[in-house]
Design brief:
Helix content is about 50%, strand content about 15%. The chain has about 150 residues and is α+β, with helices and mostly antiparallel strands.
Amino acid sequence: MMKTTNFLCLLVTLLLSAGVYAIGPVTSPGWYYTTIKYSGGTPSFSRAGPFASQDDCNAARSSDTGDGGWQPFDGSADCFYLYENDIPAYNELLEHWNLASGPNTTLPALDADMQSVLAEVNLVIGQHEIQRYRQSLNKVSNFEARRTTNQR
């Protein structure tokens, strides 16, 4: 029982650690831009959006420059449209950047065409069955809810 509890604590910590610095995952289609914030010299990436139009997104991006908090990230496309099928890929990119970034790492650079990058990430997700893996982890980490349901 103790080994199971320790394993579940580690698993939950790993699942939550990707979102420590991020505002949260993208959940709906729309216009977005990538943001960056430094904490102790370590960059963290997030997103701003969704915006209804590219003009709204560009206006928000321009007004956010220099505000001292989350800044528009110049290493990615200015504003880009995320379709429903690209949302998991973009969330994977944010998670990867946040896990891999640190004070001694170089910042990621994306092509101006975000859609081609997202297509490549979607291909990797499909090849490695990441979505199925995450669904399985969510079932395992939802141990307390399963235990409560089984006790009824």
